[in-house]
Design a protein that fits this description.
Elements lengths: L1 H5 L10 H13 L6 H25 L9 H24 L9 H15 L3 H13 L29 H19 L5 H14 L5
Helix pairs in contact: 2-4, 3-4, 4-5, 5-6, 5-7, 6-7, 7-8
Length: 205
């Protein structure tokens, strides 16, 4: 796997790179079993490689060259496919991992930020909304409604980990940045953003 990971930095001849990672990660990507006792052998086999990928990929994608060439753009698309597969694999073995609450959501947010850096604004926004909509019961609210008092605030704030507040605020911030940087002119999208800001306001106290 280390030899495969070493190819991530090679922007030339990157065609099919994500396919090679798919073949390696296929046992997890095609997994339908959710029994922790059955997952543990797979988790033990793959967790080291997945952890390496979660370090190497965001570091490799943290800056976007300017101007960007067609070759570099194709390379980034391959890396983002691998990044998505890595997070999917982590989600499959999460019951076997000793992760902090919202750790997987933080990884998804980091992926969204890297997409933002590379100009994949729509993909970044979609992922951010998935993060918000996938939070634990008692947190999720309809992101578009304008009801008085509606918010992304859990019923009992003190029972939630402190990391939840920063996750929600940073996710909304990423959406706002994507809207700004993409020079979006869709009025409906801006109304949704204003609604989102109102929903997240209680976390700013």
């Amino acid at each position: 796997m280390e030899q495969l990971i070493s190819t991530l930095h090679q922007t030339s001849n990157c065609a099919g790179l994500s396919d090679r990672f798919y073949e390696y990660l296929k046992p997890l990507l095609s997994l339908s079993e959710s029994n922790p006792s059955h997952l543990r052998p797979l988790a033990k086999c793959f967790v080291s490689s997945l952890s390496r990928l979660l370090k190497v990929l965001p570091e490799t994608l943290k800056t976007c060259p300017s101007p960007i060439t067609c070759e570099t753009l194709a390379w980034s698309k391959e890396l983002f496919k691998i990044y998505e597969m890595t997070i999917t694999c982590i989600s499959r073995i999460l019951p076997c991992l000793d992760w902090k609450p919202y750790g997987l959501d933080q990884q998804r947010l980091l992926l969204a930020r890297r997409r933002q850096i590379w100009g994949y604004y729509n993909e970044a926004k979609v992922l951010c909304y998935q993060v918000l909509e996938g939070l634990q019961p008692g947190v999720t609210r309809d992101l578009c409604r304008d009801e008085v008092g509606a918010c992304l605030l859990p019923d009992e704030v003190e029972k939630h980990e402190s990391g939840l507040a920063s996750l929600i605020v940073e996710t909304v911030f990423c959406i706002v940045n994507c809207m700004y940087e993409s020079k979006c002119v869709d009025s409906a999208a801006y109304r949704q953003i204003l609604s989102l800001i109102n929903l997240v306001r209680p976390w700013l106290r």
